[in-house]
Amino acid sequence: MANLLVRKALRSIGLLESARTLKRRFRPADRVFAPCTPHLLIAVNKGLRWCSERGLAEGSDYLEFGVYRGFTFWYTQALAADMGIRDLRFFGFDSFFGLPRIEGPDTGGEFQEGAYTCARRDVEMFLTTYGVDWDKTHLVEGWYDETLTRATRQRYQLRRCSLCVIDCDLYSSARLVLEFLEPLVGEACVILFDDWTSFENQEMRGEQKAFTEFLHVNPKFTAEPFIEFGGHGKGFIVRRSV
Ligand SMILES: C[S@@+](CC[C@H](N)C(=O)[O-])C[C@H]1O[C@@H](n2cnc3c(N)ncnc32)[C@H](O)[C@@H]1O
Hints:
Elements: H1 2-12, H2 16-25, H3 39-53, E1 60-65, H4 71-82, E2 88-94, H5 120-129, E3 137-141, H6 144-147, H7 150-155, E4 161-166, H8 171-181, E5 185-193, H9 206-217, E6 221-229, E7 233-240
Parallel strand pairs: 1-2, 1-4, 2-3, 4-5
Antiparallel strand pairs: 5-7, 6-7
Helix pairs in contact: 3-4, 8-9
The protein binds S-adenosylmethionine (SAM).
């Protein structure tokens, strides 16, 4: 109740957004370098092998939407190096302020604004400590409605995406990710959704809703189930037919 009154007062004087930003900025740093959902690593392993065996990994880009502490992002690069893949670039997209405000179709679920906050400097520190190659690694910071644009695709000269991890929990985020990804899907792309069964596994919520809508609007793509992992994730091979 007290919280509600404070929020109301801040909104009435136009300071609610600034207060939210400050709160996120001073959240204690999350200093443990560990996977958020360990089973995602199994899916990444299978996905990268699938791409590599078909010659799809070389000359392509790995895109991860929802980096958090960067463990999966780091792991994918370490795995690629171990597999002898030389020309794969790594792009991680995140606010580094955690989840955005929960609105519209994402309300009433298990996710909260600001969850999974890890500051960019901490992510960079983890990645440097564990030896990423910064020449082929890029962190794209900001809210997706501002960063997932044609200008970003052009700035980084993004190439065909062979493996994509969508780990940003919400319908509103996954929808923007898929729109951004659309021109980057080549002949085939492995897309892993880490939060497929969130929102009580309802088809018309969360990442499932975003993917269903994406396939509906883009009939040029077909999606073949590839892997289910950890009871929460699902991956597909998405093929472009024309
Ligand atoms: C579950 S965490 C990612 C975990 C990470 N892939 C791993 O394996 O450790 C979800 C991330 O998505 C990011 N995120 C979700 N929606 C976003 C949006 N609209 N804009 C920017 N970042 C977003 C959050 O900041 C958070 O770091």
